[in-house]
Specification:
Elements lengths: L29 H14 L11 E5 L2 E10 L5 E2 L2 E2 H14 L4 E12 L4 H17 L3 E10 L7 E10 L16 E4 L5 H8 L18 H10 L4 E3 L5 H13 L2 E5 L7 H10 L13 E4 L4 H9 L8 E7 L6 E4 L5 E3 L13
Helix pairs in contact: 2-3, 5-8
Family: Belongs to the HypE family.
Protein name: Hydrogenase maturation carbamoyl dehydratase HypE
Length: about 350
């Protein structure tokens, strides 16, 4: 009888519940990570140094940040924003999380046959206004149309290029035990804003999306002190971002639950829907991990900026429980903040 050694076998597809693509593969959680690690990275030639919000590359002696993202939010217009400004701000923020000054964006549209051209015009106008507000230029793009049975309104993809200043080194592997974890303001707002206008859902209060360009806030922070890690907690929320950082750096993250800035409307909506606010998407907030010596100055700089007025310390990086995020509860116990498996709120960005 032949003995088969399974130790060197690899699985070519994610085997969490289904061999087919499901919504959870786009949720920014464990299933998204499996899709990237088991299909895309091997097919594209192996691993990369950091799976961060943007890649930092060198060209002609300059260090450039390069990022791309697609937007499929439903509905396309929501309280506080639209798929248009989201597509600009999301890519601008991905570049800023590398410490880069965003410069140029491309845009690509997939339009469903039958979509009202007035809707396309509103989205384009929103993108133009958002690009001007973020001081970036939309310089190239593409448009495709699919038949009425193959799409869902308008999908937008943006890619961006930014310039990384000399001496700036930011990445998830740079987190160290003792570092301080900061957040720039209230969390979970974008996800609840989108959910609030979906059919049949009403939370009895008005919540506006926090979509905004964060490059100016990042520049103020870098001028104030050293920053090890930056991340905008979009899909999968704060929980996904901190788990990814903890695993990349091999550190633990210890949070204090009572210090998490969750506004009452978000807390109430999450309670109604059975969601964890830490896993709900944000589009105008950032997480920063900074050395303890730099934390007071960086925090002051954040609070002096309009987009960081609600900034606060939410925890620290620790040597214990490496790769895990743990929160101290109001009762004095601890709970593990896990990486989301799949999609809590589909089509949220």
């Amino acid at each position: 009888m032949t003995t088969v050694d399974f130790s060197n076998w690899t699985c070519p597809v994610p085997l969490r519940d289904t061999p087919n693509v499901v919504m959870g593969h786009g949720g920014g959680g464990a299933m998204s990570a499996e899709l990237v690690e088991q299909i895309f990275l091997p097919a594209f030639g192996g691993s990369v140094a950091d799976l961060a919000d943007s890649a930092v590359v060198t060209a002609g002696g300059a260090r450039l940040a390069f990022s791309t993202d697609s937007y499929v939010v439903k509905p396309m217009f929501f309280p506080g924003g639209s798929i248009g400004d989201l597509a600009v701000n999301g890519t601008v923020n991905d570049l800023a999380m590398s410490g880069a000054t965003p410069l140029y964006l491309s845009s690509a549209f997939i339009l469903q046959e039958g979509t009202d051209l007035a809707v396309v015009g509103r989205i384009a106008q929103a993108m133009g206004l958002a690009a001007a507000a973020a001081s970036v230029r939309l310089v190239t793009g593409d448009t495709k149309v699919v038949d009425s049975a193959s799409g869902d309104g308008v999908f937008v993809t943006t890619a961006g290029i930014g310039l990384v200043p000399p001496g700036v080194e930011i990445g998830p592997r740079r987190a160290r035990p003792g570092d301080v974890v900061l957040v720039s303001g209230d969390i979970g707002v974008h996800g609840v804003a989108v959910m609030s206008c979906r059919e049949g859902l009403s939370f009895g209060t008005s919540v506006l999306s926090d979509t905004a360009p964060l490059a100016g806030l990042v520049a103020a922070m870098l001028a104030a002190g050293e920053v090890h890690v930056l991340r905008d907690p979009t899909r999968g929320g704060v929980a996904a971002s901190l788990n990814e950082i903890a695993r990349a750096a091999g550190v633990g993250v210890s949070l204090v639950e009572r210090d998490l800035p969750v506004p009452p409307a978000v807390r109430d909506a999450c309670s109604l829907l059975g969601l964890d606010p830490l896993q709900v998407a944000n589009e105008g907030k950032l997480i920063a991990i900074v050395p303890p010596s730099a934390a007071p100055a960086v925090l002051d700089a954040m609070r002096a900026h309009p987009l960081g007025a609600g900034a606060q310390v939410i925890g620290t990086c620790v040597a214990e429980h490496p790769g895990m995020v743990v929160a101290q509860t109001a009762l004095g116990g601890n709970r593990v903040i896990s990486l989301p498996i799949g999609e809590q709120l589909p089509r949220i960005c």
